[in-house]
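sorry to bug you again but im stuck and you know this stuff better than me. theres a chain ive been looking at and ive put its sequence and its fold in token form underneath. id like you to explain what the token line says about the fold, in plain words if possible. anything you notice is useful, everything is just below.
___
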Amino acid sequence: MSEATRPARHWLLAEKRAPLPPAGKDHLKLRKRVHLLCFLVFLALPFTNLMRVDIPRQRVFLGGAEILISEFSILFFATMFAMFVVAAMAIVYGRIYCSYACPQMIFSEWSVSVERWAANAAGRLLPRGGAGARKALGRGIFLAALAAASVVLAFIFTAYFVEPRDLLHRLLRFDLVTVGGLTGAVVTLLTFLDFTLLRQKFCTTICPYGYIQGFLQDRQSLLVEYRDPSAACIECNKCVRVCEMGIDIRKGPFQIECVHCGDCIDACEDVLRRVGHPGLISYSWGGGKAQDRGEPWYRRWGIRDAKRVAILAVMVAYLCALGVAIHGRKPVLMRLNSDRTTLFTRLPDGRIANRVRMNLASRLSRPVEVKVWVERLPGVQVGLDPNPLTLGPGQTLERTFDIIAPATWPGAQELNPIRVMIQSSDRNASDGADMMFIMPAGRN
């Protein structure tokens, strides 16, 4: 090639600047640490009952509290709060959730890493084998590892809906008949297919969050943005090669595939700082660098306008109200109803009995004693044995018993208003029901 046609050396490389010190933040390492933390939380939640839906027992465990599925209002508002948090995260922090906390992204990146590890392991095991043999062995190792991981992850996921010990027994018996066992098998198959076929394609073809993000974000949302006012890009394309989603961030920050992981930021910083120029890609709040230390701390954390202050205030108020509602629940759900299959019963000694139906449901993880008594009825006896009775952790109980009164007393009528009371030993919570005690006509 002649001197006239040889391409000019890029000005940044020609200047031979002194290398800059490292940027001080490795987004990839930070993201992997957050991934590990999220996985440990995902692993621990169903076994600690901090968040689990026990479908067979019709209960929801939330923050250590047991909520009956019939308590629709609390479950509805808890679900709405979770949706509000997701929307608020999207408004303020863009798609940070996708890259740092989304299980699909965490396990997809993990499967890609396992595939690379399997290929390297095959190369070490067959150093003199053909390329086809090494590729087949690497694929076999990869599929075997994913099969084992799919069973484990499917077990953890299903444990959110079925009691873990019961689920383990089903797994050891290779149960494919009951709903719990069949669900575990289906989830295992779907997990395996996801890891081998979909991975990050799920984010751009099925997941609606990325599309919703386009409606929620505004000029103050967090973005990953490329800026090159001095034409310093040397076209190394490392930012493209490291991108898990396979995009070119230089084409704009609003690409649906971009999950704001920050890998391209690290790649650009790594290359350009070696030639004395800061990176050209950074996190951005509405056109300004997110790392700008000249701004107050609350602006660097995303609280940049009145809209975000209102979102934060609503979220805190919502969380406090939800906490009060959960904490203020009665530890034992108690219901009383008159059993009118017979209006009254005359006992051999002449006393009159009315039958009552009682339903109890414990919301506690420890035993509790429940006592029943009657007000506004002289000489009354509660035909419940034992009284108080013991209700086990999470136990539900339906019992019928008689309220027995003398054949006559001053002021007795055919219909006598009474109040039946129930009290639990936990926090002395009590409940009551007003009903009528029926006496026979012409008893005098």
Notes: The chain has a mean pLDDT of 86. The two ends are 127 Å apart (CA to CA). The longest helix spans residues 131-158. The domain at 332-438 is CATH 2.60.40.10 (Immunoglobulin-like).
